[in-house]
Amino acid sequence: MQKTWLLSLFIVFASQLTAQQELMLHSLPNIWHSTTTNPAFFPENKKFVLGLSGVGLDAAHSGDITYRDIFKKNGDRTIIDFSNAIDRLDPNNEAQIDQRSDVVSLGFRLPGKMYLQAGYANRLSGVVNYPKSLPELLWYGNGQYIGETLEIAPQADIADWNEWSIGFMKEFGKVRLGVRGKILSGVSALRSDPDHASMSVYTSPDIYQLTLHTDYGFYSSSIISSIDTAGLGFDFKLAETKRKYLSTNTGNAVDIGIQVKVNDKLTLDASVLDIGGKITWDSKSNYFLSQGDYEYEGTVFPGTDIINGADSLSFNLTLDTLNDVFNFEKTPTEFTSKLPLRGYFGAQYTFSRRLEFGVNGYFSKPENSDANYAVGLSARWHLKQWFSVGTMYSVNDRSAANVGFHVLLKLLPLQMYFATDNLFNAFSIKKSPAVNLRAGVALML
Prior knowledge:
With about 450 residues, the chain is mainly β. The protein has helices at about 1-10, 25, 135-140, 305-310, 425, and strands at about 50-60, 70-75, 75-80, 90-110, 115-130, 150, 155-170, 175-205, 210-220, 225-230, 235-240, 250-260, 265-280, 285-295, 330, 335-340, 340-350, 355-365, 370-385, 385-395, 400-410, 415-420, 435-445. The chain has a single domain (about 1-445), classed as Porin, CATH 2.40.160. It has five helices and 23 strands. It is elongated and about 80 Å long.
């Protein structure tokens, strides 16, 4: 399913995909899975923790675009319809996604105020940049762009990997210091080449001569095995790959964190994650490059029919000859992906036995994209020893009005929680331009 999603992003470039913020989760250091945001976190007064499962998703699009704005039901099939989306796109658009599945994790309290933790998780991180002219051309065709040059090249950096981790935390009085090392095992990747990032279409106003130019390249591991542009449009052949716990696509990363209990009321924390994180891809890894110019005389092609596969096409362009332009040459090669550097800070204030307030912040810096920031104010009510709820108001790069929510149940020895940075989007994935949620279960003794 993940691989289908990745490919649809690369071809359609406008699904509902900002990196994984999880501000609400970070504001709850006694929840076991919050250790993923700071290796200095460990539940108070617990000696052993078994994380049974946890899942997190943070995805957004730079414009106010949703899944249902693009994909429509037409009888028994789903078709692409850009008519309701194009006017809301920016000249340049960005879609980002971070997804994490914590399969299993362990935590131990050792003598000497020391703690060990270990875990296995699946992660997906990606960013896609594309110009508005790309969906315009795909939808309207080139008829209304006579005399104009349309730059349509998208850029993508997407990776899917397994993560094995082991961490150590030590208390020094009121200070906890944590460090976590991670072994990364790559499953699949798709990455554009910034040195070959041009793809343009020009239609002459004289005889409607169509000129196509490409100088476009990308790397792929275990996603696209070949490209054939003969016939109607593109045929991206997917590589047949099963998820392996360990692969030859290897890498590593380091997390560091600190938590300071200033007094009985105030606790401060900060962390930096995925330091030096990168994966080297050498299994089923290839480089695809298209370089060429081609001219067609008297041609105007319809975009809509090409996208959704019309039964008949009444235009003169012989699509077989697109191979002369989009003739991607495939070269086996090794390449690397760098993980986005991420970080958190927090301040938690215990106002009373039942009420806490907090300030939390987040940043993320993908390799070839602008940094993302978020900050939030939170409140938490301990209604019972076994039940708490909370809310958060946060501001991030794309919205100044996010209302978060969490609920925590402690049915000893089980701990179950749900958290989201934006409650209004958490349960309407296909209707919202962004979604953020986190849920998990742990056994704590």
